[in-house]
Amino acid sequence: MNTQAEAILNKNLEICDAHHHIWDFPNSKYLAEELLEDLLCGHNITSSIYMECGYGYDQTLPKHLAPIGETRLIDQFADDVLSRTNGRIHACKAIVGYADLSRGDSVKEVLECHLEQSERFVGIRHATGWDSDTKIRNAHTHPSEGLMLTSNFVDGIRSLAHLNLTFDAWLYHPQIIELVELSKKVPHQKIILDHVGGILGIASYSSQTKEIFNQWKNDISLAAEQENIFVKLGGLAMSICGMGFNKREKPATLDELTQVTAPYYSHVIDKFGVNRCMFESNFPVDKVGVSYKTLWNSFKYLTKSFSDSEKKALFKGTAEKTYMPSIK
């Protein structure tokens, strides 16, 4: 494998980036210019899935309705990118927003408001990442321990199922079994597990790499038995994974990234199959350790021996069918 030039591998392969954000923080900006720089890096990105991150909330609305402002703004953003690329790149082709699912049945009001904002709106992510280690930052929604199995949360998920909306699960790897139990309670709900299950490799987990990998493998295998769970392949360059990419002076090379991540992605694909797996960039979060160009090259190198139909599923088909089932 020649990593000197980092040439684009299989440059004609169509890609739907199954997970990215847009945000504007004081020390971190990822808006149209930044996104387009990545989307136009040489890979054939034709569409993407937008994932909620608290951007553009409408503070004039009651707190529980404020997240619909994000859906409204991203819908406008998607139109802008489509125009700027002459219709070639359908960025944010599907929008996953936020609603507090612990509101139970009453969350239906918020879901219906999201649907009114955009035809691109397809589902909700309510991040539930929680860990007892106080050195690990819990998810931005400030979840409590065991949230996913509370009766109100389960009722909120049922409201999603009633409207045929997706549920993105962002959690930490010790919570995978909790998600498995949730999936059994709502067997008709389409659940997408983000970032191969949120590997923790920092704080109290930093010296347990082998043990964590083995536990994760077992739990992911159990999750694969639930046919309503799908998985996003990505997110391993995040700092919480403890793989060190974020501490490097230079971004990881194709060799370095693939060597570390391949055991995780290969196991998930083996257990779930290509029709329940989809590649994601998780940008700009993973940008702390790897470039967009190298990230997608690593996914392509990992799957170089796969058939064309398998690649088509992993890089685009599964993502679009999962979030946008009416697409042929």
Characterization of this structure:
By secondary structure, the protein is an alpha/beta fold. It has a single domain (about 15-325), classed as TIM Barrel. Helices cover about 35% and strands about 15% of the residues. The chain is built from nine helices and ten strands. It has helices spanning about 30-40, 70-85, 110-115, 150-160, 175-185, 210-225, 255-270, 290-300, 310-325; strands at about 15-20, 25, 30, 45-50, 90-95, 120-125, 165-170, 190-195, 230-235, 275-280. The strands form two sheets. An eight-stranded parallel β-sheet has the order 1-4-5-6-7-8-9-10. Strands 2-3 form a two-stranded antiparallel sheet. Helix 6 (about 210-225) runs parallel beside helix 7. It starts with 13 loop residues before the first strand and ends in a 5-residue tail after the last helix.
Strand content: 5-15%
Our measurement of the CA-to-CA distance between the termini, rounded to an integer number of angstroms, reads 35 Å
Uncertain segments are: none
What's the CATH architecture name?
A: Alpha-Beta Barrel
Helix content: 25-40%
Q: What name goes with the CATH superfamily?
A: Metal-dependent hydrolases
Please summarize the sheet with the most strands. 8 strands, parallel
Total domain count: 1
The name of the CATH topology is TIM Barrel
List the helices and strands and how they pair.
Layout: E1 14-20, E2 23-25, E3 28-30, H1 32-39, E4 44-51, H2 68-84, E5 90-97, H3 108-117, E6 121-125, H4 151-162, E7 166-169, H5 176-185, E8 191-193, H6 209-224, E9 229-233, H7 254-272, E10 277-279, H8 292-302, H9 308-323
Parallel strand pairs: 1-4, 4-5, 5-6, 6-7, 7-8, 8-9, 9-10
Antiparallel strand pairs: 2-3
